[in-house]
Design brief:
Elements: E1 10-12, H1 15-25, H2 38-47, E2 49-50, E3 53-54, E4 61-63, H3 66-74, E5 80-85, E6 88-94, E7 97-100, H4 103-111, H5 119-125, E8 128-134, E9 137-139, H6 142-158, E10 163-168, H7 175-187, E11 190-196, H8 206-220, E12 226-231, H9 242-252, E13 257-261, E14 269-272, E15 275-278, H10 279-283, E16 289-293, E17 296-299, E18 304-307, E19 318-320, H11 323-331, H12 343-353, H13 361-368, H14 380-392
Parallel strand pairs: 1-5, 10-11, 10-13, 11-12, 13-16
Antiparallel strand pairs: 2-3, 4-8, 5-6, 6-9, 7-8, 14-15, 17-18, 17-19
Length: 397
């Protein structure tokens, strides 16, 4: 229980640090369940293992800022310090140890580089101090605990045994995503979709991506077999170790299968102790099955969505589902072709990004669209869906 009484000393953390502390507190990155002291941190950074389970780097709290550094320098063992975020007390920490760290070395462990031109390195460097504190802590962050309870209730109620999972940015959700999700549902009792919720403003807003994903699930999937989990992926899930932490997260949510694409950035080969390794060598010690699926493309000869490994036609016949390219169309207000993104989803996203875009929408709608003659107010989303249907109408011959 977190005391409401203010202590004389406080450490100031941002929401990203608070979320990550809560994630560990609730056991979602077990066997890591708390902050590491200096000796343990050094061992984990060196061996990449914690309690016999792969863990790519130490879990520490090293907040930046002159005010925090002054507090850290004055802390004593056994002292209780407040954790404060956005002006409010969100937790407490009982000091075990305060020790110095090298931010550059820590960045190297997380991202595989400390080059400040790397966007992840740049963002993390701005919020990483050179002193860390360890000790027992408690934070108040109801979102994660409530989500765990909801997932557990659904699993118990349905009696699901085979629980698959996917980690998605869905930025935006496209036809390839849809195919992967459908395939997962056909082979599992329940599919848990971890929807990335980053602490940056890159890409589509989280609420827009969530609405689009729910629209697809509610209208085109068996709704009681899909669970969407908001996944606040802080900086620790970035870089070359993302897949290991994703696997731990999924396992600790109760999933027994994690589905990833063959082109996942974390599947690279690397040399360790003069031996060629794959990430699967390390994932084998995590009690979860890792299943890879082929890249899906649209083949203009097959005229459907196909696996790039099984289609006999060459690359020049394939349309790829490149998220950033699709995003470029959407951000410029252009409806992507329906072979890339379902028209209902495109309409939903474009309407959210460009509200009240047309000055005389109702007039435009009834001038262009077939209608029953009844004059009803139409939304931007309805207009875009109808417009896409016109694009799909057979050409005049």
């Amino acid at each position: 229980m977190i005391s409401s009484k203010r202590n004389s000393k406080a450490l100031y953390i941002d929401t990203e640090a608070l979320s990550t502390l809560a994630l560990v507190q609730e056991g979602l990155l077990a066997p890591v369940t708390g902050l590491m002291n200096e000796a343990t941190a050094r061992e984990v950074d060196s061996k990449k293992v914690y309690k016999g389970v792969p863990f790519p780097f130490s879990f520490i709290l090293a907040p930046t800022g002159r005010r925090n550094k002054k507090v850290l320098e004055a802390l004593e063992v056994g002292e209780i310090v407040d954790l404060v975020s956005e002006g409010s007390k969100v937790g407490e920490l009982k000091v075990e140890e305060v020790f110095e760290i090298d931010p550059s070395t820590r960045l190297q462990h997380i991202y595989g580089t400390s080059d400040p031109s790397h966007p992840g390195v740049r963002n993390t460097l701005a919020r990483l101090g050179d002193m860390a504190v360890s000790g027992e802590y408690r934070v108040n962050y109801p979102l994660i605990r409530d989500t765990i309870s909801r997932v557990n209730q659904i699993i118990r109620r349905t009696g699901a045994k085979r629980i698959a999972s996917m980690v998605l940015a869905a930025n935006p959700i496209n036809r390839a995503h849809e195919r992967m999700i459908r395939q997962s549902i056909s082979e599992a009792d329940i599919v848990v979709l971890f929807l990335r919720k980053p602490f940056t403003n890159e890409g589509l807003r989280y609420d827009i991506r969530l609405n689009a994903l729910n629209l697809f699930i509610d209208n085109f999937l068996p709704r009681n077999r899909v669970i969407v989990v908001p996944f606040e992926n802080s900086y620790i899930f970035a870089g070359c170790n993302e897949l290991i932490l994703d696997a731990l997260l999924a396992r600790n949510y109760g999933c027994n299968e994690l589905i990833i694409g063959r082109n996942h950035a974390g599947l690279g080969l690397y040399y360790d102790q003069n031996r060629l390794n794959s990430i699967f060598d390390r994932l084998s010690d995590i009690d979860i099955e890792i299943k890879t699926v082929d890249e899906y493309v649209y083949c203009d000869t097959c005229r459907t969505l196909v696996s790039s490994r099984t289609c006999p036609h060459g690359q020049h016949h394939h349309i790829h589902y490149h998220s950033q390219s699709i995003m470029t169309l959407i951000q410029n207000g252009i409806l992507p072709p329906t072979i890339l993104v379902r028209k209902e989803i495109s309409a939903n996203i474009i309407a959210a990004l460009f509200p009240n875009r047309f000055e005389h929408l109702q007039e435009l709608y009834y001038s262009l669209m077939p209608s029953s003659g009844l004059l009803e107010k139409k939304s931007d989303e309805q207009f875009y869906k109808k417009l896409m249907m016109l694009y799909q109408t057979s050409s005049l011959t």
